[in-house]
Structures are given as structure tokens and as C-alpha cells.
Design goal:
By secondary structure, the chain is α/β, with parallel strands linked by helices. The strands form three sheets. The chain has a four-stranded mixed beta sheet. β1, α1 and β2 form a beta-alpha-beta unit. It starts with a strand and ends in a 6-residue tail after the last strand.
Length: 201
């Protein structure tokens, strides 16, 4: 898991693992690019290795990513979930985990990519928004879409109320997609995602 902030999506994954809903996936290590964030505390409370690789302590993006990759390899990581990780990853990092890096975004992509997706939705006056879990590619929120959940936009919504309902859907969707990836139930050809059928079906 890569994190940068409070770690509410990380907590949803930790909770899913604790009740057996993440298997066969397991959370091997939590890595933050920022020291002292709540996400690291959440990991420690759950008994998970919590490591800070401060991006400001490295002279280049490549050096920063090399340090993260070293931590992930040390813990035997086979796939990566971005749980509120606020750094753009280079093609070099992505190549270490091809079609095995997940991200969640608080909109129905391709609508409202990048930062401030919820204010963008409110400003545009859409009646429905939601969240998306997708594979990460070299763009910003442009990777192949795996799953989405819709959330109605209410007349009295503000950023906080709408984001809270979107976040609730993210907390359900991200663990399920993580479980599917670990179970080998997702196929990606670089553009599209398909669910692999179970044997005999």
C-alpha cells in the first residue's frame, strides 16, 4: 500500500482483511511519502510494517521511486494499491508491477480526473457522480477502469457531504477489487479490463 495522508481507504482495506474479506490478498507493508501521517499510525495499530520514504529526502523522482521499490521488494509485494497516494508514478515504477497497481478516484472517470474531483462535479451541476477503481498507467487517472459505483448529487450537497458518501462507496469497492486482483480474477490487455470466469463456468 502506498499512502500520503489520513488513510481512510487504507483503513477500509485493513478492516476487510481483519474480517477475512480481502483473501487471498494480504497487506504486506504500508509506505508513505510523508512522515507522521495518520495512515502510518493506522498501519502500526493493525500490526503492519509502516515505512516512510520521504520524497523530499531524495534528489530525484527516480531515486525516490527506487527507494520505494526497495521497500516493496523487501516485503515481497506482488501488487500495489494506491490508498490516497498523492504522487505521480513514472513509467519506470509502473513497469515493475505491470497491470498490478490499483488506484481509486472520487468520480466516475473519465469525468473529473485529477485533484478536486468533488468540487468539479458540484461546479458542473451533475446529478450523479461516484468513484472509480482503475489500473494505473502513465497518465493522470487515465488507466483502464475496473469498477465504478454511482452516488447521487443532492440539491443541498457541499464538498464535505458529497465526498463522505463517495468515500463510503470507495471503502466498499476498493477492497473487493483488491481481492479480485489477488485472486487472478481480472484480465487487462492494457486498454480494457475483463473479469476472468471461474473454471467450469
Amino acid at each position: 500500500m502506498l499512502v500520503s495522508g489520513s488513510g481512510t481507504n487504507l483503513q477500509a482495506l485493513l478492516d476487510a482483511e481483519s474480517r477475512g474479506a480481502l483473501a487471498p490478498a494480504t497487506i504486506a507493508v504500508v509506505v508513505s511519502n510523508r512522515p507522521g501521517v495518520l495512515a502510518l499510525e493506522r498501519a502500526e495499530r493493525a500490526g503492519k510494517p509502516a515505512v516512510c520514504v520521504d520524497h523530499r529526502a531524495h534528489g530525484s523522482r527516480e531515486a525516490f521511486e527506487d527507494a520505494m521499490l526497495a521497500v516493496l521488494r523487501e516485503h515481497g509485494v506482488e501488487a500495489v494499491v494506491l490508498a490516497g497516494f498523492m504522487r505521480i508514478l513514472t513509467a519506470r515504477f509502473l513497469g515493475a508491477f505491470p497491470h498490478r497497481i490499483l488506484n481509486t478516484h472520487p468520480s466516475l472517470l473519465p469525468a473529473f480526473p485529477g485533484v478536486d474531483a468533488v468540487p468539479q462535479a458540484l461546479a458542473c451541476g451533475v446529478k450523479v457522480t461516484g468513484c472509480t477503481v482503475h489500473f494505473v498507467d502513465a497518465g493522470v487517472d487515465t488507466g483502464p477502469i475496473i469498477a465504478q459505483a454511482c452516488v447521487p448529487v443532492l440539491d443541498d450537497d457541499d464538498d464535505a457531504s458529497l465526498h463522505a458518501r463517495i468515500r463510503a462507496e470507495e471503502h466498499a469497492l476498493l477492497p473487493e477489487v483488491t481481492r479480485m486482483l489477488a485472486a487472478g480474477a481480472l484480465l487487462c490487455d492494457g486498454r480494457r479490463v475483463q473479469r476472468r470466469r471461474a473454471s467450469g463456468t
